[in-house]
Amino acid sequence: MISRLATSYAPICLALSIPAVATPATAWAQKAEQSPLELRADDTAALIQGTKEPENIFAPIMLAAVPPAQFKAISEQLIAQHGALQGVESVTPLDATSGTAVLRFAKALVTVTLSLEQAEPNLINGLRITNVETLNDSMEKIKADLDALPGEVGVLFSKLDESSFPALARNAGTQYAIGSTFKLYILSALARSIEAGERKWSDVVELDRQSFPSGRMQNWPKGAPVTLQTLATMMITISDNTATDMLLYEVGRDAVEAELIASGHSDPDRTLPFLSTLQMFALKGSPGNLAKYVAADETTQRMILADFEDDVGGDPDKVTPPRFTSPTAIDTVEWFASGQDLQKLLRRIVDLSDPTARNIMGISPALPGPVTEKWAYVGYKGGSEPGVLNLTWLLQDKVGGWHVLSLSWNNTEANVDNAALDGLAQRILAFSD
């Protein structure tokens, strides 16, 4: 299971302006009138088009973060999704060396933020997409693009009230592997335990187990004291697998499974027994153990997991992780839910009198500023591994109404495209007015 960290698109997305043909003297006059920011906006466009090289435009810090080969792949993806680059629509400075540029593609306006080094030649040291506005879009076009994705796709965009007619529903009752979005069930179980007075967010526990990344806490010293709120925050905001397994065992597997059932999950047998992240890694890293586990009934599976706990506990050094280069048992060994199941779970989180769980979900909204500004609250959790992607948002409108947007994409044959589903999510939200 590989976390999808918050992005509004691929890490960097850019657009291209094709300058008019000019004599050398005219071209020099045009450049002389442009600010450094405007010049670098044009250079960014040329870079996407492939007429300039990153080494001549990017500062070393940018080249280290986004190597030329990666930038080329991102540029090709942008053009494939949004059509030919037609020009720089506008440049808006924030100061002398930073601002935004709107880049026009055939099918979309792409807004990017640019920051430049102070010293000449003002190389680009920061570049990020902040918004994509699809031109002449419609819900029918969105549905067609969803249906064109290879594999299986489910979408639910609706008010949180289950009696409301959804704005968009595509296979909303179908079970999908959801990757790290399963961590919302642990968050909800923890929050309900705290609401019942059994625990406190401030309770301190010792870090006594670890997992593989995503995350950082696998590198923390064993025995380090951490609060339950810290663990929950790490679990949701950076999808920390060590924090997740800590909470699964602190809250109790039985309590988390009870929460999954209490939430109204439509097919809990697909997910039970509720795996820890380390157990999932161990199973998928051992073809023999994986086959044995998949063939077993639930009682036998629980015995297998009990033996694992006795032999391995929370020690990843005793586990051979999977390579995760292609989809691996995503239809059998995973955490599963439908869009409607996640809608019900989010309803339970909203109904909590203590807002801490919602506050944690709101730390990393995974949407660009122009989208989040339309809402009073945006909370997010997503998850991915090869062949699996889920994006789930809890949203509150400006008059207090609660909404859910959940998209799942599974493909047992090939990896899935995070940027493509991100883009579709933003297009759906554009129709939320």
Automatic annotation (TrEMBL):
<protein>
    <submittedName>
        <fullName>Serine hydrolase</fullName>
    </submittedName>
</protein>
<dbReference type="InterPro" id="IPR000871">
    <property type="entry name" value="Beta-lactam_class-A"/>
</dbReference>
<dbReference type="InterPro" id="IPR012338">
    <property type="entry name" value="Beta-lactam/transpept-like"/>
</dbReference>
<feature type="signal peptide">
    <location>
        <begin position="1"/>
        <end position="22"/>
    </location>
</feature>
<dbReference type="GO" id="GO:0030655">
    <property type="term" value="P:beta-lactam antibiotic catabolic process"/>
</dbReference>
<dbReference type="GO" id="GO:0046677">
    <property type="term" value="P:response to antibiotic"/>
</dbReference>
<dbReference type="Pfam" id="PF13354">
    <property type="entry name" value="Beta-lactamase2"/>
</dbReference>
<keyword id="KW-0378">Hydrolase</keyword>
<keyword id="KW-0732">Signal</keyword>
<dbReference type="GO" id="GO:0008800">
    <property type="term" value="F:beta-lactamase activity"/>
</dbReference>
<dbReference type="InterPro" id="IPR045155">
    <property type="entry name" value="Beta-lactam_cat"/>
</dbReference>
<feature type="domain" description="Beta-lactamase class A catalytic">
    <location>
        <begin position="159"/>
        <end position="264"/>
    </location>
</feature>
